Amino acid sequence: MSEGIEAQRAKSGLWYTEDVSPGVKVQTTLKSILITTKSEFQQIDVIDTHFGRTLVTDGKTQSAQLDEFAYHESLVHPPLLKSALLAKDFGKPRSVFIGGGGELATAREVLRHGSVERLVMVDLDEKVIDVCKEFLPEWGGEDVASNPRLDLVIGDAHAYLMNTSEKFDVIIMDISDPIEAGPGIMLYTQEFYAHAKTLLNSPNGVFVTQSGCADSIPAPFAVGGEHDTACYGPIINTLGTVFDCVVPYSTNIPSFGGDWGFTMAFNAPRRIEGDIPDEVREELITGWTNASNDVIDGLLDVRIGCDVLKYYDGETHRGMFSLTKPLRTSLKEDKRIMTKDNPIFMY
Question: Among all residues, which ones are annotated catalytic?
Answer without folding.
Answer: 174
